[in-house]
Structures are given as C-alpha cells and as structure tokens.
Write the structure tokens for this entry.
Amino acid sequence: MGVATERGMAADLAVDLGCDRIRVYVPGRGIVVDQPCVVARRSSNRAIVAACDDALRYISGRQADSVLVSAREGTAIDFEAVSCVLRHATSSAGWGTHSLRSRTSRQHMLLCVEHTAGDVECRALIDAAKAAGARSVSLLSSAIAAAVGAGVNLHRPHGAMVMDVGSCLTSVVVVSLGSVLACETSPVGGRAIDRAIREYLRDSCGVYISDKMAEEVKKCCAFAAPVVGCSPVEITGRDVLTGMDRSVQVRPEDLRLVVEPVVDRIVGVAINCVTDLPPELSRDLVETGIGLVGGGALLAGLSLRVEAATGLPVTVLDRPVDRVCLGAGRLLKAREIVSYPLRGERRSRSALKVSPLPFFDATSRFSSLFSEERSMLPLSQEDMIC
C-alpha cells in the first residue's frame, strides 16, 4: 500500500487523539498536524461550528454566542466532536474534502487508544474515524505506541517500562516481545495540576486565572521536587472581588506544595506497577530504566520523584509529547516494509486492543528499524519534521 496516491494525497495516517492535542503522522513526512483537540459550539443549539485551530480563532471573536468544548475528557468521547476533530485534522494532513469520492485517496487510519479502553469506546472511535473519511481503521494500544516511540526493541525478550503522563490520564506499562505484560492507569495528569494551581490562586491569593495561564504557570514555576533559591514570581489575574486586573507574588515552593497531592498520585501509578512485577522483569528494568513521555514529563522534578520512589533510573525523552504519535508512525511504516496487514476492526476486546500486534514477529527486516545496542532511540530526520 503506497504512502501517497497519484493525486498527491496522504493514503495512510497514524493519529494520536489525546485529550488536549491531536497529532497526525504521515509516512515520509513525519508529524504534519499538531492542533488542539477542541470544538466550538453555539450556546443556543450546541451545534458545532469549528474544530481545532479554527475553533480557537472562531471563539476569539464570538465569545458571546459560542463555547469551547474539549472533544475528549479522559475515556469519555463526544462522538460528534471527535468526528469533526478527526475530519479537520486529517484534511489538514492531506485527506482533502475534494477526494471524498475517490476510493484510493482515503485509505487506512491507525488510531491510538488507551490500553484499558473498553469495547464501547473502541467502537465509538472506529465509527468516528470512518465518519471522518477513513476506509479502514486499526486501533493500536497507546502503550505499544509509546514504547516504540521511546525506542524499545519489541523483538527483544527483555522488559521495558514506559510512563506516559498525559493531560487526563497517567499510564505505566511494561512491554516485552510486543505484548503488554503489566499496565497501571489513573485518571490524573496535567489538567489536575492546572486545576490545583487555579484553585490555590483563587482561594489563597484572590485572583482568577485562565486555563492557559495556569498551564504557563505550571511550566515555568511549578516543581515536583523541593527547590531552593528561587525568587517569587509575579502572576497577573482578575481580582475575585473587584473584577479588575491584579498581580500577586507567588513563591515556587508554595506552588510545589499545592501540586504535591497530584504529583503523589502520578508517582503512585509507577509504584503500583513496579511492586506487582515478577523478579525477572524487575531485573530487566534495573538495566533499561523507565522512559518518561507525555506532556507531564516536562514538569520540573517529576523524573527525580519517580526515580526516588521506584529506585529505577528515569529518562525524560526528547519531544516527549510526540512519542506516542512517532511510535504509531514507525509501526505504520513497518507494515509497509513487511507487507503484513494490521489488525483491523474486530469485536473482541483483545483484538480491539491490538496487543500483541501480529506483525511484530512477521520478519526479521522489521527488527532492523530498532537499535539492539540501546533501549532509547534518537529521533530520525523524518521524525524531526513538524
């Protein structure tokens, strides 16, 4: 199956549909779409009028009659919103609306789902992808995608652990030989940290801040580990009483104490996964360590907290937010190399999770994509394309 059709449109796509962002990978081009996973709805009739970047532009000029809504909230899926987001993102990646009648212009979509996703969610995602224009859909466990994106060699009989801290969900998985041997998840992530920061500034400092401002404060001022010598930072928000703009001084150490309960829950997911492992897998993890991916991996000090709690070395990978999409893209390219079909739409839960994937041991040529000498691969030149 070719990478592109005769019209120059992308034929196969790998999609990472997260709670905050949607990323689309096109073989030969890398990640070509990275947009917010939101839609704009009219307040009167809840009709969707725009999606992704267009929704942000639409809402900026029509705040009175429209509302911005996330397409996903953890495992909860808004079918109509997800379909619109997928249609907008895939159209930006090359699946143009003018090619709807062509049977070759829109072909296969590889869609990442949580490893613990149930049958209802999987079926809803498949239907949403088909409504967006895909002729066929395969579901890939995001745990496998994150492991491949982290450079784990799925052919080696050694355990490897990957921790994905997303915006709504934290998952820790141990994979070996293409199978998920252990998995722990918790509905906590970056949004919980943002919410804790907003509530602290509202209750203790008397100022309201937006979700975007809370995320910026988290990136520049919040820490998961104790810090010393950091001067207070100035945060501007809306006064709770007067409604006027007001600036407050906040110490980074105070923010660390605010986000401490959330960080404890995130670290607890890794602890639960490690404590349930058999001894032979624990020995492998001492050598390979934990690969930290996802947007939450950028929280300063989180790797130190996980390393101290588990006793395993932790590596924060380059571009951690893109690793799931990059891993799905590598597997999409590998299918072409081995000429072996991906597992598609089935009714059983094990098939929908696609674990283990059937082409992992199809041919030795696939293993050449991965390095035998090290467990964490560098980004290729194609993966660097955005």
